[in-house]
Fold this protein.
Amino acid sequence: MVKNFFILFAACITPLLMILAKINAYTFIFPIVQTMLVVSALILAIVFTVQALAPRLLNKFSITASLAILLFVILNQIPILIVLLLISAFAYHIAQMNDERIPFVQNSVLAILLCQSGILLAVIFLYPVWEMQKAKLNLSFHDELTVDFQSGEKPDIYYIILDGYAREDILKDYYQVTDTPLYQYLKDNLFFVADRSHANYAQTSLSLASSLNYDYIPNLFERIDPSHPSRLSLHRMISQNRIMKILRQNGYHILTFHTGYHLTEIPSAGHYLHKKFVIHEFQKTFIGILTRTSMFKDFFYDDHRNNILYTLSALKTTSSLPSPRFVFAHIICPHSPFVLSKKDGHIYPSYYYSIIDGCHLIKNNTSRSWYIQNYAQQLLYIDDLVIDTLTHILKHSRMPLIIVLQSDHGPASTFTWEKMTMDGARERMSILNALYCSDKELPFYRSITPVNTFRIILNHFTNANLKLLEDQCYFSSWDTPFDFYKVPEEYLQ
Protein backbone atom coordinates (compact mmCIF):
# COMPACT_ATOMS: atom_id res chain seq x y z
CA MET A 1 0.00 0.00 0.00
CA VAL A 2 2.81 2.42 0.91
CA LYS A 3 4.59 1.67 -2.37
CA ASN A 4 1.41 2.25 -4.35
CA PHE A 5 0.99 5.62 -2.64
CA PHE A 6 4.50 6.70 -3.60
CA ILE A 7 3.92 5.64 -7.19
CA LEU A 8 0.80 7.77 -7.40
CA PHE A 9 2.52 10.69 -5.68
CA ALA A 10 5.56 10.59 -7.96
CA ALA A 11 3.39 10.22 -11.04
CA CYS A 12 1.40 13.31 -10.10
CA ILE A 13 4.27 15.51 -8.92
CA THR A 14 6.56 15.01 -11.91
CA PRO A 15 4.51 16.92 -14.51
CA LEU A 16 3.79 19.65 -11.96
CA LEU A 17 7.49 20.11 -11.32
CA MET A 18 8.10 20.30 -15.03
CA ILE A 19 5.54 23.12 -15.26
CA LEU A 20 7.23 24.89 -12.36
CA ALA A 21 10.58 24.74 -14.13
CA LYS A 22 9.05 26.26 -17.25
CA ILE A 23 7.27 29.01 -15.31
CA ASN A 24 10.49 30.02 -13.56
CA ALA A 25 11.85 30.87 -17.02
CA TYR A 26 15.08 28.94 -16.61
CA THR A 27 15.65 28.87 -20.32
CA PHE A 28 18.51 26.39 -20.03
CA ILE A 29 16.67 24.13 -17.56
CA PHE A 30 13.52 23.41 -19.54
CA PRO A 31 15.33 21.59 -22.38
CA ILE A 32 16.99 19.45 -19.69
CA VAL A 33 13.59 18.68 -18.21
CA GLN A 34 12.24 17.75 -21.64
CA THR A 35 15.22 15.46 -22.23
CA MET A 36 14.63 13.80 -18.88
CA LEU A 37 11.01 13.20 -19.81
CA VAL A 38 12.04 11.67 -23.13
CA VAL A 39 14.41 9.30 -21.37
CA SER A 40 11.80 8.47 -18.74
CA ALA A 41 9.17 7.81 -21.39
CA LEU A 42 11.52 5.54 -23.31
CA ILE A 43 12.36 3.58 -20.15
CA LEU A 44 8.68 3.29 -19.33
CA ALA A 45 8.06 2.07 -22.88
CA ILE A 46 10.66 -0.67 -22.34
CA VAL A 47 8.99 -1.61 -19.07
CA PHE A 48 5.64 -1.85 -20.85
CA THR A 49 7.23 -4.00 -23.58
CA VAL A 50 8.58 -6.40 -20.99
CA GLN A 51 5.16 -6.52 -19.43
CA ALA A 52 3.58 -7.15 -22.83
CA LEU A 53 5.73 -10.25 -23.40
CA ALA A 54 3.28 -12.10 -21.21
CA PRO A 55 -0.06 -12.11 -23.12
CA ARG A 56 -2.22 -12.03 -20.03
CA LEU A 57 -0.42 -8.90 -18.85
CA LEU A 58 -0.97 -7.17 -22.16
CA ASN A 59 -3.33 -4.31 -21.45
CA LYS A 60 -4.57 -1.83 -24.02
CA PHE A 61 -4.92 0.94 -21.49
CA SER A 62 -1.29 0.63 -20.39
CA ILE A 63 -0.09 0.86 -23.98
CA THR A 64 -2.36 3.84 -24.62
CA ALA A 65 -0.96 5.61 -21.56
CA SER A 66 2.65 5.05 -22.64
CA LEU A 67 1.92 6.33 -26.16
CA ALA A 68 0.22 9.41 -24.73
CA ILE A 69 3.27 10.17 -22.60
CA LEU A 70 5.60 9.76 -25.58
CA LEU A 71 3.42 11.96 -27.80
CA PHE A 72 3.32 14.71 -25.22
CA VAL A 73 7.08 14.66 -24.71
CA ILE A 74 7.91 14.58 -28.41
CA LEU A 75 5.23 16.92 -29.74
CA ASN A 76 4.52 18.92 -26.57
CA GLN A 77 0.93 19.29 -27.78
CA ILE A 78 -1.16 17.13 -25.44
CA PRO A 79 -2.44 19.16 -22.46
CA ILE A 80 -0.38 18.50 -19.37
CA LEU A 81 -3.47 17.86 -17.30
CA ILE A 82 -4.49 14.92 -19.49
CA VAL A 83 -0.99 13.44 -19.28
CA LEU A 84 -1.03 13.79 -15.51
CA LEU A 85 -4.33 11.91 -15.34
CA LEU A 86 -3.08 9.20 -17.69
CA ILE A 87 0.08 8.65 -15.65
CA SER A 88 -1.90 8.57 -12.42
CA ALA A 89 -4.50 6.19 -13.87
CA PHE A 90 -1.79 3.89 -15.17
CA ALA A 91 -0.01 3.87 -11.80
CA TYR A 92 -3.27 3.03 -10.10
CA HIS A 93 -3.93 0.30 -12.66
CA ILE A 94 -0.51 -1.25 -12.02
CA ALA A 95 -1.15 -1.10 -8.30
CA GLN A 96 -4.37 -3.10 -8.73
CA MET A 97 -2.87 -5.87 -10.87
CA ASN A 98 -2.09 -9.22 -9.31
CA ASP A 99 0.80 -10.97 -10.99
CA GLU A 100 4.21 -12.31 -10.06
CA ARG A 101 5.85 -9.65 -12.30
CA ILE A 102 4.07 -6.76 -10.64
CA PRO A 103 6.93 -5.99 -8.17
CA PHE A 104 9.30 -5.55 -11.14
CA VAL A 105 6.92 -3.16 -12.92
CA GLN A 106 6.11 -1.27 -9.73
CA ASN A 107 9.73 -0.87 -8.72
CA SER A 108 10.70 0.29 -12.21
CA VAL A 109 7.96 2.90 -12.44
CA LEU A 110 8.57 4.06 -8.87
CA ALA A 111 12.34 4.37 -9.35
CA ILE A 112 12.01 6.33 -12.60
CA LEU A 113 9.41 8.78 -11.34
CA LEU A 114 10.97 9.34 -7.92
CA CYS A 115 14.43 9.82 -9.42
CA GLN A 116 13.09 12.32 -11.93
CA SER A 117 11.08 14.13 -9.27
CA GLY A 118 14.12 14.35 -7.01
CA ILE A 119 16.28 15.82 -9.75
CA LEU A 120 13.58 18.33 -10.68
CA LEU A 121 13.13 19.37 -7.06
CA ALA A 122 16.87 19.94 -6.72
CA VAL A 123 17.02 21.94 -9.95
CA ILE A 124 14.00 24.10 -9.18
CA PHE A 125 14.59 24.83 -5.52
CA LEU A 126 18.37 24.58 -5.10
CA TYR A 127 19.36 26.34 -8.31
CA PRO A 128 17.88 29.73 -7.25
CA VAL A 129 19.77 29.49 -3.94
CA TRP A 130 23.01 28.74 -5.75
CA GLU A 131 22.32 31.49 -8.26
CA MET A 132 21.72 34.09 -5.57
CA GLN A 133 24.90 33.08 -3.74
CA LYS A 134 26.77 33.44 -6.99
CA ALA A 135 25.10 36.81 -7.58
CA LYS A 136 26.34 38.04 -4.20
CA LEU A 137 29.88 37.34 -5.33
CA ASN A 138 29.44 38.89 -8.75
CA LEU A 139 27.43 42.03 -7.96
CA SER A 140 29.22 45.23 -7.06
CA PHE A 141 26.27 47.62 -7.11
CA HIS A 142 26.27 48.04 -3.32
CA ASP A 143 29.56 49.93 -3.47
CA GLU A 144 27.60 53.17 -3.57
CA LEU A 145 28.52 56.58 -2.19
CA THR A 146 27.06 58.17 0.90
CA VAL A 147 25.40 61.51 0.24
CA ASP A 148 23.80 64.29 2.23
CA PHE A 149 21.00 66.52 1.04
CA GLN A 150 21.67 70.22 0.84
CA SER A 151 19.85 72.67 3.12
CA GLY A 152 16.16 73.08 2.48
CA GLU A 153 13.26 70.67 2.23
CA LYS A 154 13.86 67.34 0.57
CA PRO A 155 11.71 66.82 -2.53
CA ASP A 156 9.05 64.15 -2.82
CA ILE A 157 10.06 61.96 -5.78
CA TYR A 158 7.70 59.94 -8.00
CA TYR A 159 9.21 57.43 -10.40
CA ILE A 160 6.43 56.10 -12.65
CA ILE A 161 7.14 53.56 -15.38
CA LEU A 162 4.57 53.05 -18.16
CA ASP A 163 5.79 49.80 -19.62
CA GLY A 164 6.36 49.94 -23.37
CA TYR A 165 5.11 53.51 -23.89
CA ALA A 166 6.41 54.79 -27.24
CA ARG A 167 8.03 58.14 -27.94
CA GLU A 168 5.75 60.68 -29.61
CA ASP A 169 7.35 60.46 -33.07
CA ILE A 170 7.20 56.64 -32.95
CA LEU A 171 3.47 56.79 -32.27
CA LYS A 172 3.04 58.89 -35.41
CA ASP A 173 5.37 56.89 -37.67
CA TYR A 174 4.52 53.33 -36.57
CA TYR A 175 1.03 53.53 -35.06
CA GLN A 176 -0.60 56.42 -36.91
CA VAL A 177 -1.43 58.11 -33.59
CA THR A 178 -1.10 61.83 -34.25
CA ASP A 179 -3.01 63.20 -31.28
CA THR A 180 -1.68 61.98 -27.94
CA PRO A 181 -3.39 63.65 -24.96
CA LEU A 182 -0.64 62.66 -22.53
CA TYR A 183 2.19 64.31 -24.46
CA GLN A 184 0.17 67.50 -24.86
CA TYR A 185 -0.67 67.49 -21.15
CA LEU A 186 2.99 67.08 -20.18
CA LYS A 187 4.04 70.05 -22.33
CA ASP A 188 1.19 72.21 -20.99
CA ASN A 189 2.11 71.46 -17.36
CA LEU A 190 5.81 72.33 -17.44
CA PHE A 191 7.20 68.82 -17.79
CA PHE A 192 10.47 68.61 -19.66
CA VAL A 193 9.77 66.11 -22.46
CA ALA A 194 13.00 64.58 -23.76
CA ASP A 195 11.87 64.12 -27.36
CA ARG A 196 15.10 62.38 -28.44
CA SER A 197 15.31 60.03 -25.47
CA HIS A 198 16.15 56.33 -25.78
CA ALA A 199 16.14 53.35 -23.45
CA ASN A 200 19.52 52.07 -22.36
CA TYR A 201 18.30 48.46 -22.73
CA ALA A 202 15.54 46.68 -24.63
CA GLN A 203 14.28 44.58 -21.69
CA THR A 204 12.35 45.68 -18.62
CA SER A 205 14.55 44.07 -15.98
CA LEU A 206 17.76 45.36 -17.56
CA SER A 207 16.35 48.84 -18.03
CA LEU A 208 15.06 49.24 -14.47
CA ALA A 209 18.12 47.64 -12.88
CA SER A 210 20.20 50.22 -14.74
CA SER A 211 18.06 53.31 -14.05
CA LEU A 212 17.46 52.56 -10.34
CA ASN A 213 21.20 52.08 -9.85
CA TYR A 214 22.10 54.96 -12.23
CA ASP A 215 24.74 52.92 -14.04
CA TYR A 216 25.17 50.49 -16.91
CA ILE A 217 24.67 46.80 -16.12
CA PRO A 218 28.30 45.64 -16.69
CA ASN A 219 29.47 48.25 -14.15
CA LEU A 220 27.16 46.69 -11.54
CA PHE A 221 28.95 43.34 -11.74
CA GLU A 222 32.42 42.45 -10.59
CA ARG A 223 32.36 39.97 -13.45
CA ILE A 224 29.69 39.03 -15.94
CA ASP A 225 29.09 35.98 -18.12
CA PRO A 226 27.50 37.03 -21.44
CA SER A 227 26.08 33.55 -21.98
CA HIS A 228 24.32 33.39 -18.59
CA PRO A 229 20.51 33.28 -19.06
CA SER A 230 19.20 33.83 -15.52
CA ARG A 231 17.71 37.19 -14.51
CA LEU A 232 17.71 36.53 -10.76
CA SER A 233 20.62 38.90 -10.19
CA LEU A 234 18.63 41.65 -11.95
CA HIS A 235 15.78 41.18 -9.49
CA ARG A 236 18.22 41.69 -6.64
CA MET A 237 19.54 44.84 -8.31
CA ILE A 238 16.00 46.19 -8.59
CA SER A 239 14.74 45.20 -5.15
CA GLN A 240 17.90 46.44 -3.36
CA ASN A 241 18.73 49.34 -5.64
CA ARG A 242 21.07 52.22 -4.90
CA ILE A 243 18.64 55.12 -5.17
CA MET A 244 16.18 53.69 -2.63
CA LYS A 245 18.98 52.89 -0.23
CA ILE A 246 20.42 56.41 -0.44
CA LEU A 247 17.01 58.01 0.02
CA ARG A 248 16.13 55.71 2.93
CA GLN A 249 19.38 56.69 4.66
CA ASN A 250 18.28 60.31 4.29
CA GLY A 251 14.92 59.82 5.98
CA TYR A 252 12.72 59.02 2.96
CA HIS A 253 9.63 56.85 3.15
CA ILE A 254 9.75 54.30 0.30
CA LEU A 255 6.49 53.28 -1.38
CA THR A 256 6.20 50.60 -4.06
CA PHE A 257 3.32 48.83 -5.78
CA HIS A 258 2.46 45.29 -6.77
CA THR A 259 3.47 45.24 -10.44
CA GLY A 260 2.35 41.85 -11.74
CA TYR A 261 5.88 41.08 -12.96
CA HIS A 262 8.03 39.18 -10.47
CA LEU A 263 11.34 40.78 -11.48
CA THR A 264 10.13 44.29 -10.59
CA GLU A 265 8.30 43.46 -7.36
CA ILE A 266 9.77 45.19 -4.28
CA PRO A 267 7.62 43.98 -1.37
CA SER A 268 10.44 44.69 1.10
CA ALA A 269 10.00 48.46 0.70
CA GLY A 270 8.65 50.38 3.67
CA HIS A 271 5.16 50.59 2.13
CA TYR A 272 4.04 47.96 -0.41
CA LEU A 273 0.67 48.85 -1.91
CA HIS A 274 -1.58 46.31 -3.62
CA LYS A 275 -5.18 45.25 -4.12
CA LYS A 276 -6.85 43.26 -1.35
CA PHE A 277 -6.88 40.16 -3.54
CA VAL A 278 -3.63 39.56 -5.42
CA ILE A 279 -3.05 36.78 -7.93
CA HIS A 280 0.64 36.52 -8.65
CA GLU A 281 2.12 36.12 -12.10
CA PHE A 282 3.35 32.66 -11.10
CA GLN A 283 -0.17 31.50 -10.24
CA LYS A 284 -1.70 32.86 -13.44
CA THR A 285 0.96 31.34 -15.65
CA PHE A 286 0.92 28.04 -13.76
CA ILE A 287 -2.82 27.55 -14.20
CA GLY A 288 -2.68 28.78 -17.80
CA ILE A 289 0.00 26.28 -18.77
CA LEU A 290 -1.59 23.49 -16.75
CA THR A 291 -5.03 23.75 -18.31
CA ARG A 292 -4.23 25.15 -21.76
CA THR A 293 -7.87 26.24 -21.81
CA SER A 294 -9.78 29.51 -21.55
CA MET A 295 -11.42 28.44 -18.31
CA PHE A 296 -9.62 31.09 -16.21
CA LYS A 297 -8.52 33.38 -19.04
CA ASP A 298 -11.02 36.20 -18.61
CA PHE A 299 -10.68 36.10 -14.83
CA PHE A 300 -6.90 36.56 -15.10
CA TYR A 301 -7.23 39.39 -17.61
CA ASP A 302 -9.74 41.06 -15.29
CA ASP A 303 -7.17 40.83 -12.52
CA HIS A 304 -4.45 42.29 -14.76
CA ARG A 305 -6.70 45.19 -15.74
CA ASN A 306 -7.74 45.79 -12.14
CA ASN A 307 -4.10 45.96 -11.10
CA ILE A 308 -3.43 48.71 -13.68
CA LEU A 309 -6.47 50.67 -12.55
CA TYR A 310 -5.67 50.16 -8.87
CA THR A 311 -2.09 51.43 -9.22
CA LEU A 312 -3.10 54.59 -11.07
CA SER A 313 -5.85 55.24 -8.52
CA ALA A 314 -3.68 54.46 -5.48
CA LEU A 315 -0.93 56.77 -6.74
CA LYS A 316 -3.31 59.64 -6.03
CA THR A 317 -3.61 58.62 -2.38
CA THR A 318 0.15 58.75 -1.79
CA SER A 319 0.04 62.55 -1.58
CA SER A 320 -1.42 62.18 1.92
CA LEU A 321 1.37 59.88 3.15
CA PRO A 322 4.39 61.09 5.16
CA SER A 323 7.12 63.11 3.45
CA PRO A 324 9.76 63.06 2.18
CA ARG A 325 8.78 60.04 0.09
CA PHE A 326 10.01 58.12 -2.90
CA VAL A 327 7.21 56.44 -4.84
CA PHE A 328 8.02 53.77 -7.43
CA ALA A 329 5.27 52.39 -9.68
CA HIS A 330 5.87 50.02 -12.59
CA ILE A 331 2.63 49.75 -14.58
CA ILE A 332 2.44 47.04 -17.26
CA CYS A 333 0.60 49.23 -19.74
CA PRO A 334 0.38 50.03 -22.66
CA HIS A 335 2.48 46.85 -22.92
CA SER A 336 0.46 43.75 -23.78
CA PRO A 337 -1.79 42.06 -22.78
CA PHE A 338 -4.34 44.43 -24.25
CA VAL A 339 -7.22 44.63 -21.79
CA LEU A 340 -8.22 48.28 -22.31
CA SER A 341 -9.45 50.05 -25.42
CA LYS A 342 -10.31 53.69 -26.00
CA LYS A 343 -13.00 52.53 -28.41
CA ASP A 344 -14.34 49.39 -26.72
CA GLY A 345 -13.53 49.84 -23.04
CA HIS A 346 -12.68 46.59 -21.26
CA ILE A 347 -11.58 43.85 -23.68
CA TYR A 348 -10.21 40.30 -23.44
CA PRO A 349 -7.44 38.75 -25.56
CA SER A 350 -8.30 35.45 -27.22
CA TYR A 351 -5.17 33.60 -26.03
CA TYR A 352 -4.62 32.24 -22.51
CA TYR A 353 -3.09 34.62 -19.97
CA SER A 354 0.42 35.86 -20.66
CA ILE A 355 2.37 39.12 -20.50
CA ILE A 356 4.60 38.18 -23.43
CA ASP A 357 5.94 40.96 -25.63
CA GLY A 358 4.68 42.13 -29.00
CA CYS A 359 7.19 40.18 -31.07
CA HIS A 360 6.14 36.95 -29.34
CA LEU A 361 2.46 37.80 -29.80
CA ILE A 362 2.87 38.51 -33.51
CA LYS A 363 4.89 35.34 -34.01
CA ASN A 364 2.62 32.96 -32.11
CA ASN A 365 -0.84 34.41 -31.53
CA THR A 366 -1.75 37.46 -33.58
CA SER A 367 -0.95 39.62 -36.61
CA ARG A 368 1.10 42.81 -36.76
CA SER A 369 -1.95 44.88 -37.71
CA TRP A 370 -3.87 43.49 -34.71
CA TYR A 371 -0.97 44.40 -32.40
CA ILE A 372 -0.68 47.95 -33.79
CA GLN A 373 -4.41 48.60 -33.48
CA ASN A 374 -4.77 47.22 -29.95
CA TYR A 375 -1.57 48.83 -28.68
CA ALA A 376 -2.75 52.26 -29.87
CA GLN A 377 -6.20 51.77 -28.33
CA GLN A 378 -4.78 50.72 -24.96
CA LEU A 379 -2.34 53.64 -24.97
CA LEU A 380 -5.10 56.16 -25.68
CA TYR A 381 -7.26 54.66 -22.93
CA ILE A 382 -4.55 54.89 -20.31
CA ASP A 383 -3.63 58.45 -21.32
CA ASP A 384 -6.75 59.81 -19.63
CA LEU A 385 -6.06 57.83 -16.45
CA VAL A 386 -2.44 58.95 -16.26
CA ILE A 387 -3.43 62.59 -16.82
CA ASP A 388 -5.94 62.35 -13.98
CA THR A 389 -3.32 60.81 -11.67
CA LEU A 390 -0.66 63.39 -12.51
CA THR A 391 -3.13 66.23 -12.04
CA HIS A 392 -3.99 64.97 -8.56
CA ILE A 393 -0.32 64.55 -7.59
CA LEU A 394 0.56 68.05 -8.82
CA LYS A 395 -2.39 69.59 -7.00
CA HIS A 396 -2.16 67.82 -3.64
CA SER A 397 1.54 67.07 -3.12
CA ARG A 398 3.74 69.34 -1.05
CA MET A 399 6.65 71.12 -2.66
CA PRO A 400 9.37 70.59 -3.72
CA LEU A 401 8.18 67.82 -6.02
CA ILE A 402 9.89 65.72 -8.67
CA ILE A 403 7.99 63.47 -11.08
CA VAL A 404 9.83 61.17 -13.48
CA LEU A 405 7.48 59.60 -16.03
CA GLN A 406 9.31 57.10 -18.24
CA SER A 407 8.91 53.93 -20.21
CA ASP A 408 11.41 51.13 -19.77
CA HIS A 409 11.47 50.43 -23.51
CA GLY A 410 9.29 51.03 -26.54
CA PRO A 411 6.72 48.74 -28.22
CA ALA A 412 7.50 45.88 -30.60
CA SER A 413 5.50 45.78 -33.83
CA THR A 414 8.72 45.51 -35.90
CA PHE A 415 11.14 44.42 -33.17
CA THR A 416 12.36 40.81 -32.81
CA TRP A 417 14.70 39.12 -30.35
CA GLU A 418 16.40 37.10 -33.08
CA LYS A 419 17.89 40.00 -35.02
CA MET A 420 18.32 43.71 -34.47
CA THR A 421 17.00 45.69 -37.44
CA MET A 422 16.96 49.43 -38.03
CA ASP A 423 13.16 49.73 -37.79
CA GLY A 424 12.99 47.41 -34.80
CA ALA A 425 15.76 49.18 -32.90
CA ARG A 426 14.28 52.63 -33.48
CA GLU A 427 10.82 51.51 -32.34
CA ARG A 428 12.02 49.53 -29.32
CA MET A 429 14.62 51.94 -27.98
CA SER A 430 12.70 55.23 -28.37
CA ILE A 431 10.86 55.96 -25.13
CA LEU A 432 8.62 58.31 -23.23
CA ASN A 433 10.82 60.35 -20.89
CA ALA A 434 9.23 63.34 -19.11
CA LEU A 435 10.57 65.06 -16.00
CA TYR A 436 9.01 67.63 -13.68
CA CYS A 437 10.74 69.60 -10.92
CA SER A 438 8.76 72.22 -9.01
CA ASP A 439 11.46 74.55 -7.78
CA LYS A 440 14.59 74.05 -9.85
CA GLU A 441 15.32 73.96 -13.52
CA LEU A 442 17.38 70.81 -13.66
CA PRO A 443 19.79 70.37 -16.58
CA PHE A 444 17.81 67.72 -18.42
CA TYR A 445 18.42 67.53 -22.17
CA ARG A 446 16.55 66.20 -25.19
CA SER A 447 18.59 63.01 -25.62
CA ILE A 448 18.87 62.05 -21.95
CA THR A 449 18.58 58.33 -21.19
CA PRO A 450 17.31 56.79 -17.92
CA VAL A 451 20.81 55.94 -16.66
CA ASN A 452 21.47 59.66 -16.08
CA THR A 453 18.10 60.61 -14.55
CA PHE A 454 18.98 60.08 -10.90
CA ARG A 455 22.54 61.28 -11.42
CA ILE A 456 21.16 64.70 -12.33
CA ILE A 457 18.62 64.68 -9.48
CA LEU A 458 21.21 63.64 -6.88
CA ASN A 459 23.74 66.19 -8.14
CA HIS A 460 21.29 69.05 -7.69
CA PHE A 461 19.81 68.10 -4.32
CA THR A 462 22.82 66.46 -2.65
CA ASN A 463 26.60 66.63 -2.56
CA ALA A 464 26.88 63.55 -4.78
CA ASN A 465 28.79 65.19 -7.65
CA LEU A 466 28.22 62.23 -9.97
CA LYS A 467 29.66 62.33 -13.45
CA LEU A 468 27.10 62.01 -16.25
CA LEU A 469 27.56 58.89 -18.34
CA GLU A 470 27.57 58.76 -22.10
CA ASP A 471 24.03 57.98 -23.30
CA GLN A 472 24.20 54.59 -24.98
CA CYS A 473 21.69 51.94 -26.10
CA TYR A 474 22.35 48.21 -25.88
CA PHE A 475 20.55 45.25 -27.40
CA SER A 476 20.61 41.69 -26.08
CA SER A 477 18.49 38.69 -26.99
CA TRP A 478 15.84 37.27 -24.69
CA ASP A 479 17.76 34.02 -24.11
CA THR A 480 21.09 35.74 -23.36
CA PRO A 481 20.17 39.03 -21.64
CA PHE A 482 23.79 39.86 -20.68
CA ASP A 483 25.27 39.45 -24.15
CA PHE A 484 25.16 43.13 -25.07
CA TYR A 485 25.56 44.76 -28.47
CA LYS A 486 25.73 48.51 -28.80
CA VAL A 487 22.97 49.84 -31.04
CA PRO A 488 24.50 51.93 -33.85
CA GLU A 489 23.60 55.62 -33.88
CA GLU A 490 22.19 55.39 -37.39
CA TYR A 491 19.65 52.79 -36.17
CA LEU A 492 18.17 55.34 -33.77
CA GLN A 493 17.61 58.26 -36.13
Q: What stands out?
A: The chain has a mean pLDDT of 77. The chain has two domains: 2-136, 155-492.
